[in-house]
Structure formats: structure tokens, C-alpha cells
Design goal:
Blueprint lengths: L14 H7 L2 H4 L3 H17 L5 H20 L11 H13 L1 H5 L6 H37 L4 E6 L2 E7 H26 L18 H7 L9 H6 L2 H28 L6 E2 L18 H24 L12 H26 L1 E2 L1 H8 L6 H10 L4 H18 L8 H7 L7 H4 L2 H6 L9 H15 L1
Antiparallel strand pairs: 1-2, 3-4
Helix pairs in contact: 3-4, 3-7, 3-9, 4-5, 7-8, 7-13, 7-20, 8-11, 8-20, 11-12, 11-13, 12-13, 15-16
């Protein structure tokens, strides 16, 4: 394919250089955005009198035909082209002649690619936000299904306090809410149009950048033409938001893996989202969760790679910036696939309340409640803490738990103990009494479920 930038040079580069320079294998996915951007640009050129109505009608008809043919498969992408922009412009010129050569009036590939990638990423972000909503609803459904299942909570991976398991699940829904907000914020900041900034300095033609911005769904044109073509902050922000999302999915995956282990046995994944072993017939491996956990590093790498690519670039456009798309596209592709597998995986998991209850009963996780019992009867908390810790050690030596300590022994330790101590350390009652806002009480859990559904629907 002839080089559209031939002139200053003979445009004769080696095949090796051409292959190295080409980005069409990556940016070909933006064909629709490129065509839509060109349609808006052409209409503006007609409205401002820069091009004739006749030329713009031919351009528009040609572009719409190219879009239809690409989507139907009648026009395959030519991977010998340098990029998707040149491929479409060359095809347009082939179809309509000189009018196609006029389309690039008052723009550059610098602003053209910048507007294409913003439109493409805007769509991808909305898709991811929609899938986050679906995952939040799946979490809310599971939380309601197991709303009153008593389980141990953990700090330092040591059993800590009794909770309703639904409360633990809903913590992930709150993380996902923030992920949704981060992506929406990034989209809001990037939703300014660079089209019309040209190479970097604007143009001498009487263009109407507000017209093209409105036509393409932007909030307005970028205010500085140099910034318009050199800004890739939005790529960094989006990959950063996806990195945090992936970190949350990875933490959730790690817990799912632990819960499905024989050491925990809190959950069992459906066969549809597990694999077996080639040699050990008893194995049921949580490979999908493990892959989500592993692919998180890939998205993190895209973030660091993009930051590193940008950190030393002078203004305005540099060819280094061609590397932005592969990184940000891969980050979106990876997060998208992980959500696609995580949502049905979570919907199909079966939790085991009986095993959670058993684990909760073996870890002295009501010790804080025993100390609180004494504190509420007048004993200083530190004294109550020490007495309870000594009793826990005694129970461990004798193979007891706090619920099986005789009342007589309690009374020997303190005259403040009475028969109501057993109500105070009942695991379900311990969880239910945590009525402070955001706590693990059933009322709080149901309120959280209602909240998540209200923002995710």
C-alpha cells in the first residue's frame, strides 16, 4: 500500500521497518470509531464551507459503505497498512477518488487517533461498569441467600470475631462500588474532544470544534491543542482503575480458593468453573479463580508499562505513544474476561454454613464479647481483657471452649459473672448485637443488600 505521507521522503522503508512501525494489528479494532470520527469531521467541513456539500456527501457515502463492508466481512482489514486510519483513508480514496483525499483537511493523525481511542475506551469503560453492576447484584443475591449464616471473621488470617457471612461478602460489593466510581470519574475527565487540534498547533481553517465534539458525544473540545494530542492521562487513569478492580477480584479469588480448600471447606465451586488433575483423581481445582488472581499481575504490568512509556516524553506527540493502545486494550480485555468468568462462578458457588458455624465455635471468637460483658458490668476493659485471655488459655489446656466452661468456674474468676454470661457469648447473639452502623447485625446486612441493589440496578 502506498504511503500517504510520501513527499518529504520517498516513503521507501524496509519491510522490517514497516512491520515494526505498523500498529494496525492493534488499532484495527477502532475502525468504527475512526469512521464515525471522520463522518463528524466531514460534516463540520461542509458546515463551515471548507469542503463542498458534494464532496462531503461522497465522503459520507463512501465511509458508510466501508463500515458496512468491514462489519459484513466483505472488506477484510489489510494488515500491510500502517494503521487503521491510513487503511480507511486509502480505501475511501480508492472508492470515491479525489474527494477522499480532501477528508484529511484540517486534521492530523495525531488528533485523529486521540479522538478514536477516547471514543473506543469510553465504550469499553461503560461495558465494564455494566459488568461490575452485574457482579454487585450477584454478591447481593449470595449475601441474601446466606444472610444469617454465622461465620468467623479473620485478621492476620486468624479467627477474630463472629459475623454473619453475608457481611463478609458485602465488603466486596462496597469495593466494587468504588471501582465503578473510579471508572466513571476517569471517563468524565477524558470526555473532551481532541479532534481539530491537528498535529499540535491547531489549524488556519475556520473549523468548528464544538460541532464535532457534540456530534461525537464529548462534553466539549480540549482547551489546549498541544495537550489534546499529547495527553494520555486517561489511559493511565483507566488502567489504574482497572488495576484496583483486578486487585479486588484477586482478593475475592484468593478467599474463594481458601474457602474451597479442605482446610476450610466453607464453599464448593460448581464443576463448570473447576478443573481436575491429570494424575490425582480426587482433585477439584479452583483454576478460574486462580487465573483471575494471576491475570491481575498482567493488568498491573500494563499500568507500569504505560507510566514508564510516558514519563520521559517531551511535548507533543511522539511515536512512543503508539504503545499506549496495546497496553490499555489488553487491560480492558483482561478485566472484561475476568468479570465474564467471575460473575457466573460466584452465582454457582455453594457455601456451607454448617462448616462455618463449626469453625466459628472452635476459635474463641466470642472472647471480645466476654470481655465486653465484664466491662458493661463495671470492670475496666484492660482488666476484663486480661481475665478473658487467661480463661482462653485455660480452656485450650483443658480442651474446652468458652461456652462449655461451668458457671461455677466463671463465678470463681469474678463475682460479676452470672447465668446471663452464656447469652452474652452465644455466637449468633454476638453477631446480632453488633448493631452499630455498618456492623454485622442482620438489620445492617439487609440494609447493605438494599443499598447495593439500589445503586447496581
Amino acid at each position: 500500500m502506498a504511503k500517504l505521507w510520501a513527499g518529504r521522503t520517498l516513503a521507501e522503508t524496509s519491510k522490517t521497518a514497516d512491520d515494526f512501525n505498523s500498529s494496525i494489528a492493534v488499532d484495527c479494532r477502532m475502525y468504527k470509531q475512526d469512521i464515525n470520527g471522520s463522518l463528524a469531521h466531514a460534516e463540520m467541513l461542509a458546515a463551515t464551507g471548507i469542503l463542498s456539500r458534494e464532496d462531503v456527501d461522497a465522503i459520507s457515502e463512501g465511509l458508510e459503505g466501508i463500515l458496512k463492508d468491514i462489519e459484513s466481512g466483505a472488506l477484510p482489514i489489510d494488515y500491510e497498512a500502517e494503521d487503521i486510519h491510513m487503511f480507511i483513508e486509502a480505501e475511501l480514496t480508492e472508492r470515491i477518488g479525489d474527494a477522499g483525499k480532501r477528508l484529511h483537511t484540517a486534521r492530523s493523525r495525531n488528533d485523529q487517533v486521540a479522538v478514536d481511542v477516547r471514543m473506543y475506551l469510553r465504550e469499553r469503560a461503560e461495558d465494564i461498569i455494566g459488568k461490575i453492576r452485574s457482579l454487585m447484584l450477584a454478591v447481593a443475591d449470595k449475601a441474601e441467600e446466606y444472610k444469617d449464616a454465622v461465620a468467623p471473621s479473620y485478621t492476620h488470617l486468624q479467627r477474630a470475631q463472629p459475623i454473619f457471612f453475608s457481611h463478609h461478602l458485602l465488603a466486596y460489593a462496597m469495593m466494587l462500588e468504588r471501582d465503578m466510581g473510579r471508572l466513571a470519574d476517569a471517563v468524565k475527565r477524558m470526555n473532551m474532544s481532541p479532534l481539530g487540534a491537528c498535529a499540535l498547533a491547531g489549524t488556519t481553517y475556520p473549523t468548528d470544534r464544538k460541532m464535532t465534539a457534540a456530534a461525537l458525544g464529548f462534553d466539549g473540545p480540549c482547551r489546549n491543542s498541544i495537550d489534546a494530542v499529547s495527553d494520555r492521562d486517561f489511559c493511565v487513569e483507566l488502567i489504574s482503575a482497572l488495576s484496583v478492580l483486578m486487585m479486588h477480584l484477586s482478593r475475592f479469588s484468593e478467599e474463594m480458593i481458601l474457602w474451597c480448600s479442605w482446610e476450610f471447606r466453607f464453599a464448593e465451586l460448581s464443576d463448570a468453573f473447576t478443573t481436575g488433575s491429570s494424575i490425582m483423581p480426587q482433585k477439584k481445582n479452583a483454576d478460574m479463580a486462580e487465573l483471575v488472581r494471576g491475570k491481575t499481575g498482567r493488568v498491573f504490568g500494563n499500568l507500569i508499562g504505560t507510566l514508564t512509556m510516558l514519563k520521559g516524553l517531551p511535548l507533543a506527540y511522539n511515536k512512543d505513544m503508539q504503545e499506549d493502545k496495546e497496553a490499555v486494550f489488553d487491560a480492558f480485555d483482561t478485566a472484561d474476561k475476568c468479570l465474564d468468568v467471575f460473575i457466573p462462578m460466584l452465582k454457582g458457588v455453594k457455601f456451607k454454613p454448617e462448616n462455618m458455624q463449626k469453625a466459628a465455635g472452635e476459635g474463641f471468637i466470642n472472647a471480645t464479647d466476654l470481655a465486653d460483658y465484664l466491662t458493661k458490668k463495671g470492670m475496666p476493659f484492660r482488666a476484663a481483657y486480661k481475665l478473658t485471655g487467661s480463661l482462653v488459655r485455660e480452656c485450650m489446656e483443658k480442651g474446652l471452649v468458652l461456652e462449655t466452661v461451668p458457671l461455677e468456674r466463671y463465678k470463681e474468676l469474678s463475682e460479676l459473672f452470672d447465668e446471663d454470661v452464656f447469652d452474652a457469648i452465644d455466637l449468633r447473639a454476638c453477631a446480632e448485637r453488633r448493631t452499630s452502623e455498618g456492623g454485622t447485625s442482620l438489620k445492617s446486612v439487609l440494609s447493605q443488600i438494599e443499598y447495593i441493589r439500589s445503586i447496581a440496578k
